[in-house]
């Protein structure tokens, strides 16, 4: 079963690019981890909030990657910079994917 992890960040005014860059750097690292299928970064057109959604082969793969990222020596400094750039704390959610569909070419 596929697993999904979502993080929503609401940048302070003028901090959009900094938060976008931090999320993209994290996404590039995530793409090197075992079990990752794909990752998307979205921007809410009304609020400007940024949402990262990743899809994994298994929940354990995602949890392992999150643990590794938190243990990285530079993680604390990057987390502090990101936290200072947000209006409120990062909101995360986890999901079991119960079905999915893809458009097939005609």
In terms of topology, how is this protein built?
Elements: E1 3-9, H1 16-30, E2 36-43, E3 50-56, H2 59-71, H3 75-84, E4 91-96
Antiparallel strand pairs: 1-3, 1-4, 2-3
Q: What is the β-strand count?
A: 4
Helix fraction, binned, reads: 25-40%
In N-to-C order, the SSE pattern is EHEEHHE
Largest sheet: 4 strands, antiparallel
Strand adjacency order, main sheet:
2-3-1-4
The value of Rg in angstroms is 15 Å
What class, by secondary structure content? Answer: alpha+beta
User: What would the average pLDDT be, to the nearest integer?
Assistant: 90
Number of domains: 1
Return the CATH class. Alpha Beta
Q: What is the general shape?
A: globular
Number of H- or I-type helical stretches: 3
Q: What this model shows, in words?
A:
The structure is a single chain. The model has no long low-confidence stretch (mean pLDDT 90). With 106 residues, the protein is of the alpha+beta class. It is built from 3 helices and 4 strands; from the N terminus they run βαββααβ. The protein has one domain (3-96): Alpha-Beta Plaits (2-Layer Sandwich). Helices cover 36% and strands 26% of the residues. The longest helix is centred in the first third of the chain and has 15 residues, at 16-30. Strands 2-3-1-4 form a 4-stranded antiparallel sheet. The chain is globular, with a radius of gyration of 15 Å.
